[in-house]
TrEMBL record:
Similarity comment: family membership: Belongs to the Ca(2+):cation antiporter (CaCA) (TC 2.A.19) family. SLC24A subfamily.
Residues annotated as transmembrane: 12-32, 38-63, 75-94, 254-275, 287-309, 321-345, 357-374, 386-404
Single Gene Ontology MF annotation: calcium, potassium:sodium antiporter activity
Coiled coil: none
Name this polypeptide is given: Probable sodium/potassium/calcium exchanger CG1090
Length: 421
C-alpha cells in the first residue's frame, strides 16, 4: 500500500496488535458487565507507551534515533483520545452519541495520517526546538532496499556523486563508510570510534524456519515447550496463508483478519482465567485489568515493536506503541459501546462503576507529557538510560492506579456483588 513505516505502524500494525484489547472490552461490555475492559485499556495504554518503548530501548542492544514528528503527531492524537475518554466516562454513563463521537475522532485521526507528508513538511518549517537527525545518524538507518531502489540516494556508497566527492573511499561492509588510514585517529562516528552504534536494518534472507519442524539439538525443556505449542502452530498454519510466500502475497487481508480472530480467541481464555483468579483471591477486576490483563493483551504490541526496532525501524516501533493506544481508546472502547447502546439495545447506557478509573484516565495525560519531555531531553534516541527511566515511571503509575482501585485513597471502587459460583 506504499505507506511510510510510521503510518503503517500507527494504523494496520496498531490495529492488528490491538485485537486482544478489543476482545477484552467486548467481554466486559456484553458478558462480564463490569469495568475490566476499561481498566484493561487504561493499563494497556500505560503498558504500551512506557513499558513497550522501555523494553525496545533496553533490548535493542544499540542506539536507535527517532524522528520527532511521528512521536509528536501520535502523542497529540493520544492526548486528544484521553480527553475524549475522560469526557465520556466522567458521568459514569456512556450513551450512543458519546461512543459515536469516539469513532468519528478516530476517522479524523486516519484522515490526518492520509495527509501525513504534507503536515510533516509544514511542521518542519516551524521554529520548534526539536532537532532533526544528523546526516551521519540517518546514514546508519538506510536500508539496503532503499539504496537499491534509489541509486541517486546521497547515502548510497555507489552514488557517482559520492565517489567523486570521496575518490579514495573504501567500503568496509558497514554502510560504505570511508576507512581511515592506518595510524590515523578514528573520526567521530567511524567504526572504531567509541560512541553509540546505530542500527542498519536487515534484509530478509528468504530462509524461513517452519514452526512445524523441530529444531535440532534441543534439550528436554525446549522439546517439551515445542510439543506444547505445536497444536497452536499447526492450527495457525492450517487456517492462515503465509503471505511471505510469493503465491500467497495477495492473501494478506485474509491472513490479517484470521490472525485477529485467533488473537481474540486466546484473549477470551486469558481474560476468563484472570477474572476467576482475581475473584478467588478477592482482587477487584479493575486491579487485575490494570496489571495482568493489560500486560497480557499488550504482548502483541511488545513483540511487534521489539521486532521492528531490531530491524532498525525505531519510528515504526514507537508509532505502533502510541498508535495502539489511540486505537484502544477510540475503537476498542467506542465500537463495543456503540454496538451496545445504538444497535443491540437502542437508547440504553453502559455503566462505569469505579470512580478510580476517572483519576487513572486523567493521570494518563502525565504519561504523554513525560514521554515527549524525556525523549527530547535524551536527544531523540532510544538507549538503555532512556529505557530505565520509562520503566520506573511505568511501575510508579501502575502502583498508584492499583492503590486507587483498592480504595487506599478513598472509597472509589464499590465492592463486588456476592457470587454463587
Amino acid at each position: 500500500m506504499k505507506l511510510s513505516p510510521d503510518v503503517a505502524g500507527a494504523t494496520f500494525m496498531a490495529a492488528g496488535s490491538s485485537a486482544p484489547e478489543l476482545a477484552t472490552v467486548i467481554i466486559g461490555v456484553f458478558f462480564a458487565k463490569d469495568d475490566i475492559g476499561i481498566s484493561g485499556v487504561i493499563g494497556s495504554a500505560v503498558f504500551n507507551i512506557m513499558f513497550v518503548i522501555s523494553v525496545c530501548a533496553l533490548c535493542a542492544g544499540t542506539v536507535c534515533t527517532l524522528n520527532w514528528f511521528p512521536l509528536c503527531r501520535d502523542c497529540f492524537w493520544y492526548a486528544l483520545s484521553i480527553l475524549v475518554m475522560l469526557f465520556v466516562i466522567c458521568n459514569d454513563l456512556i450513551s450512543w452519541f458519546e461512543s459515536l463521537f469516539m469513532l468519528l475522532v478516530y476517522v479524523a485521526y486516519c484522515v490526518s495520517l492520509h495527509f501525513n507528508e504534507l503536515v510533516e513538511k509544514w511542521a518542519n518549517t516551524l521554529p520548534l526546538p526539536c532537532k532533526p537527525a544528523s546526516p551521519d545518524e540517518e546514514a546508519h538507518l538506510v536500508t539496503y532496499r532503499t539504496l537499491a531502489e534509489d541509486p541517486n540516494n546521497p547515502n548510497n556508497p555507489n552514488n557517482a556523486n559520492q565517489q567523486q566527492q570521496y575518490p579514495d573511499m573504501q567500503t568496509n561492509g558497514e554502510g560504505g563508510q570511508p576507512v581511515a588510514p592506518q595510524g590515523a585517529p578514528a573520526a567521530p562516528g567511524a567504526p572504531g570510534a567509541p560512541g553509540p552504534q546505530y542500527y542498519k536494518p536487515k534484509e530478509p534472507t528468504g530462509e524461513e524456519v517452519s514452526p512445524l519442524e523441530m529444531p535440532p539439538n534441543m534439550n528436554q525443556i525446549e522439546t517439551l515447550r515445542w510439543y506444547s505449542v505445536y497444536p497452536i502452530h499447526y492450527l495457525c498454519r492450517l487456517t492462515m496463508p503465509d503471505c511471505r510466500q510469493q503465491q500467497y502475497r495477495q492473501w494478506y487481508p485474509f491472513t490479517f483478519v484470521i490472525s485477529m480472530v485467533w488473537i481474540s480467541f486466546y484473549s477470551y481464555i486469558m481474560v476468563w482465567m484472570i477474572t476467576v483468579i482475581g475473584s478467588t483471591l478477592g482482587i477487584p477486576d479493575t486491579v487485575m485489568g490494570l496489571t495482568f490483563v493489560a500486560a497480557g493483551v499488550s504482548v502483541p504490541d511488545a513483540l511487534s515493536s521489539l521486532a521492528v526496532v531490531k530491524e532498525g525501524y525505531g519510528d515504526m516501533a514507537v508509532s505502533n506503541a502510541v498508535g495502539s493506544n489511540v486505537f484502544d481508546i477510540l475503537i476498542c472502547l467506542g465500537l463495543p459501546w456503540f454496538l451496545q447502546t445504538a444497535i443491540i439495545a437502542p437508547g440504553s447506557h453502559v455503566n462505569v462503576y469505579s470512580k478510580g478509573l476517572t483519576y487513572s484516565t486523567l493521570s494518563l495525560l502525565s504519561t504523554v507529557v513525560f514521554l515527549v519531555v524525556a525523549t527530547h531531553l535524551n536527544g531523540w534516541k532510544l538507549d538503555k538510560k532512556y529505557g530505565v527511566i520509562l520503566m520506573l515511571w511505568y511501575l510508579a503509575f501502575i502502583s498508584f492506579a492499583s492503590l486507587y482501585e483498592l480504595n487506599v485513597f478513598g472509597d472509589l471502587n464499590p465492592p463486588e456483588c456476592p457470587s454463587t459460583y
